[in-house]
Amino acid sequence: MAAERIEVTVLLFGKAKELAGSDQATVTLDSVISYSDLKKTIFESIEGLAPIKSSCMLAVEQNYLTHDDLEIHLRPTSELAVIPPLSGG
């Protein structure tokens, strides 16, 4: 059975927010998705983010994701975030 397609709001912080020109975006995703497919879809769907793709982390429900996450379950109400590296100063 194929995963359902859902719309999820993606929160953008720091450089991601600056590049996208907004603090959030809506992306259509499979409700069950791997980390690599999730990251690929987000960075292809939100204009301007491609330059920072390799340095960003993703989080769902305030939990960081890793490449080891092979089956991420999302709902339309899931809190999904793109978190760029923090710089000190």
From TrEMBL:
Pfam families: ThiS. GO terms for biological process: Mo-molybdopterin cofactor biosynthetic process. Keywords: Nucleotide-binding. GO terms for molecular function: nucleotide binding. GO terms for cellular component: molybdopterin adenylyltransferase complex. This is Molybdopterin synthase sulfur carrier subunit. It comes from Steinernema carpocapsae.
